[in-house]
Amino acid sequence: NVFELNSRQGKEFSKIHKATFPMQLPEMFIKKFTETSVLDLFLGTGTTMVASHQLKRKCYGMELDPIYCQVTIDRMRKLDPTIQIKRNGIIMNE
Q: How many CB atoms lie within 10 A of CB 76?
């Protein structure tokens, strides 16, 4: 199959991370294959987490690089300032 996606979308973080992709990609798979939650073990800049949140799914993500973790946290707080973010199971304060 070939997916036709907006190639400009996802480039916002390409200077930070080399493997970015448009939001449409995870949205497509999340809609088709999930009902309540998503697991992303290579979270990167958090595109899958943002898509999950917008589709009302809980997202569990894991990322080893602290820089990418902070990018994801910043994106999620910008998207939803009331979001509860946990690090290693402990709720993070601002």
A: 19
| HEC readout, 32-44 | HHCCCEEEECCCC
What pTM did the predictor assign? Answer: 0.79
What are the tens digits of pLDDT across the range 10-20?
566 666 766 67
User: What tokens were used for 65?
Assistant: 């690089």
> How many Å apart are CA 16 and CA 81, to the nearest integer?
23
CA distance 32 to 14: 26
Q: Which residues contact 33 (CB under 8 A, 6 or more apart)?
A: none
Token output for 72: 């994801």
Count of all residues that appear for the chain in the document: 94
